[in-house]
Amino acid sequence: MFSIFYQVRGVLSILFLITNTVFWGSFLFAVTLLRLVVPVKSWRRITGRMAIFFAENWIFFNNVALILTRNIEFNLKGIEKLDRKAWYLVISNHQSWVDIPVLQKVLYHKIPMLKFFLKKELIWVPLLGQAWWALDFPFMKRYSLDFIRKHPHLKGKDMEITRKACEKFKDNPVAVMNFTEGTRFTKTKHERQTSPYKNLLKPKAGGIGFVLSAMGDQLSYVLDITISYPLGVPNFWDFLCGKVKRIDVVVRKFPVTEELLGDYSNDKDYRIGFQKWLNNLWQEKDLYFEHVVNGFPKN
Question: Which of 45, 156, 213, 252 is deepest in the core (most CB within 10 A)?
Fold first, then answer.
C-alpha cells in the first residue's frame, strides 16, 4: 500500500515538474528571442532581469511543491548571515542529483540565483543552451596544457574569454556555483581515485581557481557548502516519491582575501597554496561526515 502511494507521488511530482518547467520555460524562451532581436546593451540588462524573474518563479513553485508534498526535516547551519546583494563563489560536495533542488531550496532569495560556468559548446543544446544564454550563464572555453603546447599563441586566451563572460556581473550580484569534486560521489569512483578522504572524492582546484583568477576582484565571499543525507543518500526518484526524510546543510562563509587571489594558470606558488587551502577545507568536511553524519542512527 505504502509502496503504491510513493510511486503515485513520484509520478505526480514528475508531471508537476514538467508542467512548471514548460510554463516558465516558455516565458524564458520568449525573452531569449527578444534579446536576439534587439542586441542593445541596455535592452540586454532589462531582458536579463526578466529572465531571472521567470527562472526564480520556476524555482519558487518547485519549492512550494516540495514543502506541500513532502515531510522533510531540513537541518540548516550558517545561512543566517547571507546577503542577496553580495557576490559569491559557491562550492559544494556532490552525492546525488537531489543536491541541486536542495541548494535551490536552501539558498532561495538568500543569495543571488545560482549560475554555473558552462562549456562554450553547450550553448548549442536546443532550448537549454538558449535559456542559459538568456540567464547570462557564463560560457567558457578551456584549453588543455597539451593543446597550449601545440598552439602557444592561444596561451591566456581561455582566461580572456572567461573575463569577458564575467563582465556582465559587474553591475548585478551573482552566485557562481561549482561542484568541486567534478562528479557525484560513488564508492567505485572513490576507489578508482584512491581518494585520501573517507567520505569524499578529491576536490578539483582548477575550476574554482580559474573563476577566482578571472573575477576574484568582483567576488565578496566563498561559500563552502556541505550537503549530507544522514538516513542514506537518495536517488532522484526516491526524492520525487517523498522517501527523503532528513537533509542537513552546513554553510561556511569565507571572505575573498588577497591569499585567495592570483593567477592560477601561470603562478605555481599561488596554485600550490590554493590547492592546499582547498584540500584543508575538504579534510574538515570529511571529518564532519565521519563524526556527525556517519554517527547518525539510520533507523
Answer: 213
d(CA 198, CA 294): 11
Contact 84, 173 (CB under 8 A): yes
Shortest CA distance to 94 belongs to which of 237, 285, 252, 299? 285
SS3 track for 48-112:
HHHHHHHHHHHHHHHHHHHHHHCCCEEEEECCCCCCCCCCEEEEECCCCCCHHHHHHHHHCCCCC
Cβ atoms 102, 118 nearer than 8 A: no
Could you identify the residue written with the cell 564532519?
288
Q: Is the separation of the CB atoms in 253 and 82 below 8 Å? A: yes
pTM of the model: 0.86
For the chain, domains (ranges, CATH) are: 74-293 (3.40.1130)
Residue with cell 560536495: 93
For residues 66 and 69, give the distance between their C-alpha atoms in angstroms, rounded to a whole number.
6
Separation between Cα atoms, residue 231 and residue 228, nearest integer Å: 9
- The C-alpha cell that represents 268 in the structure block: 605555481
